Amino acid sequence: MTTVVSEAVTLAPPEPLVAAPRRRLRPGKPIPFGRLVGVATVVGIWALASAVGLLDPRKLSAPWTVLQTGIDLARDGTLEANTAASLHRAVLGLVIGVAVGTLLAVLSGLTRLGEALIDGPIQVKRAIPALGLIPLMILWLGIGETFKVVLIAIVVALAIYVPTHNALTSIDSRYVELAEVVGLSRWGFLRKVVAPGALPGFFLGLRLAVTGSWLALIVVEEVNAVDGLGKMMYSAQDYGQSDVILVGLVLYGLFGYLSDSLVRLVERRVLSWRRTLAN
Amino acid sequence: MATDVGQLSAVRATGLVRRFGEHVVLDELNLEIAAGEFVALLGQSGSGKTTLLRALAGLDRDVTGEGTLAVPPKVSVAFQDSRLLPWLRVLDNVVLGLAKGRDVGRAALAEVGLAGRERAWPTQLSGGEQQRVSLARCLVRDPQLLLADEPFGALDALTRTKMHGLLRDLLRRHRPAVLLVTHDVDEAIQLADRVLVLDAGRIVLDRAVDVPQPRSLRDPAFHEFRDLLLSALGATATADGSTR
Ligand SMILES: Nc1ncnc2c1ncn2[C@@H]1O[C@H](COP(=O)(O)OP(=O)(O)OP(=O)(O)O)[C@@H](O)[C@H]1O
Ligand SMILES: [Mg+2]
User: Fold this and answer.
1) In this structure, is residue B99 part of a structural domain?
2) pLDDT by residue (tens digit) across A98-151?
3) Do A181 and B77 lie within an 8 Å CB cutoff?
4) In whole angstroms, how large is the CA radius of gyration of chain A?
5) What is the rounded CA–CA span in Å between residue A268 and residue B1?
6) How many CB atoms lie within 10 A of CB A150?
7) Mean pLDDT, residues B46-71
8) Which of A127, A278, B53, B154 makes the best surface tag, with the fewest CB within 10 Å?
9) Sequence-separated (6 or more) residues with CB below 8 Å from residue B203
10) Omega into B214 within 30° of 0, i.e. cis?
């Protein structure tokens, strides 16, 4: 006689079949919105400390005060005008700096003459922090917009020059050999081998450049400015408004983070052939 | 220095000398390869096989000597690593540097059994598949001479056997002269018309492979030839078959 099993049989979820799992050397699965978790934790601690009265509001305002101040400043148009002024400087400096830095890297990375003329001075210049140039720049250019944009552009150009130049000069010699064997023209070699090979270095430079442009922006706006986020924060310091200073800092941070994310997004698209630890 | 050669021979090199400092790697070396001939080059590690290959490929500008070096205008090189550019898709790698259209590239990929993988990135292919792409890149150029430096060295035995079949097939159709550097004595006997052994910068053995087709590992003639090569290579080969 046969028994008919009528109930549905539930099977245990299959065990992953890994024989003696290896030590995992790459980090595990990425945590969803991983970066936000860290930010939220910091803000949470800040809020908690403010709520229980651990923080003196004159030194560090509570998050909600900062938010309220931000809204107020946005209402009366102060924030918009200052942000626009800052963004204008940063973007202009970034664009000019990226163009100049990349051009110099290409000239010195690909031509012997360029290397002789450009690389030496740039390495010397690198030993002088860009901000040390401020007095000279003011002397030459006055304390107007030009000086600010030029200084940002210098910081950006240097940031992008170093990794790009390095990537251009360290193309794998095996690929050079291949290019010779298949008879690539000089132009084809640059287009098919050198440029794509140097792109990762360029993107690294671009990320450093974007961060550098915000850094330089803060400094030049603190030296002297009639508008801009830095100016807003400095005036607030005179009146002891820690909330206004924090609004400025949050905006700087936000712009810095967003621009870096944008660069990384483009990088992922353009360098999709790469398989790295990150994915 | 390199000039074109006539129809009869694909490579004619006499008196090639290559030094690295005091170290003479190629010592007045002579080599001739007929059109369409398949020559395997054996030699101990460091004997100068790669150096010779690079000289023939025109990659080495420091080859000296009194003699001549003549190679055909169309030479392809297959490297030990497949050497695909990781930022170019498979098809773009195959037609790299070619003016003619991508259709020939597609056809070459189909020939090596990789139709449909044109848009893959090289890192998405297995080692054997990458080596096949490299082979397609060589053949799409219709070479009169194919120089290959241990192209199958990194492959497992089974994949290697499959690649041998594929190579034989492709060569039957394209008929280039071939100089194949290999460490594998059996591979040399199975594929080549002629085997050379390089030692101390000179060719110390130059012998046509007289093992009848199909060259089976079971054939006593195969063993005899292998013993000959092994002793030329300096390995102790004994008559009782300890090298089997
Ligand atoms: N660029 C170089 N500078 C100095 N010595 C070199 C250079 N290239 C090769 N040699 C020397 O020349 C000799 C032959 O090298 P080669 O690469 O041709 O050997 P090989 O026969 O291909 O060896 P393997 O089978 O290990 O690939 C070696 O002794 C090596 O050390
Ligand atoms: Mg070698």
Assistant:
1) no
2) 999 999 999 999 989 998 999 988 888 888 887 788 888 899 998 888 999 999
3) yes
4) 26
5) 47
6) 19
7) 88
8) A127
9) B29, B30, B31, B196, B197
10) yes
Nearest Cβ partner for B87 among A174, A182, A196: A196
CA distance A24 to chain B (A): 21
Residue positions counted in chain A? 279
CATH of the domain at B243: 3.40.50.300
- The verdict on residue B89 lying in a domain is no
Q: What is the pTM of this model?
A: 0.78
**How many independent structural domains does chain B possess?**
1
Angle between helical axes of A78-110 and A229-238 (0-180°, round to 10): 130
What does chain B come to in residues? 244
Q: What is the pLDDT of residues B177-207, one digit of tens each?
A: 999 999 899 999 999 999 999 998 899 999 9
CA distance A138 to A187: 42
Is residue B61 within 8 Å of B112, Cβ to Cβ?
A: no
- Output A21 or A95, whichever has higher pLDDT: A95
**Ligand 1 contact via B20 beta carbon (within 6 Å):** yes
Longest dimension (CA), chain B: 56
Which tens digit of pLDDT belongs to each residue from A210-253? 999 998 998 888 887 788 888 888 888 888 888 999 999 889 88
What topology is assigned to A60-270 in CATH? MetI-like fold (1.10.3720)
Does a structural domain hold residue B95? no
Q: Does A187 touch chain B (CB under 8 A)?
A: no
CB B194 within 8 A of CB B38: yes
Q: Which residues contact A229 (CB under 8 A, 6 or more apart)?
A: A82, A83, A86, A218, A221, A248, A251, A252
- Collapsing DSSP to helix, strand or coil, B207 comes out as strand
Poorest-confidence range of A17-21, A96-100, A265-269?
A17-21
Q: Torsion-angle region of residue B180: left (phi > 0), alpha (psi -120 to 50) or beta?
A: beta
Instruction: Report how far residue A115's alpha carbon sits from residue A165's, in angstroms, rounded to the nearest whole number.
Output: 10
Contact criterion met (CB below 8 Å) for B143 and B76? yes
- Contacting A with CB below 8 Å, chain B residues are 57-59, 75-77, 79, 81, 83, 85-88, 96-98, 121, 123, 137, 141
For residues A227 and A79, is the Cβ–Cβ distance under 8 A? no
B31 domain-assigned: yes
Whether B2 shows a pLDDT value over 70: the answer reads no
CA distance A158 to A102: 9
- The structure tokens listed for A190 are 């640059």
Q: How many angstroms does the Cα of residue B50 sit away from the middle of ligand 1?
A: 7
Q: What is the pLDDT of residues B214-242, one digit of tens each?
A: 888 888 888 889 999 998 888 644 444 44
Predicted confidence (pLDDT) at residue A204 exceeds the cutoff of 90 = yes
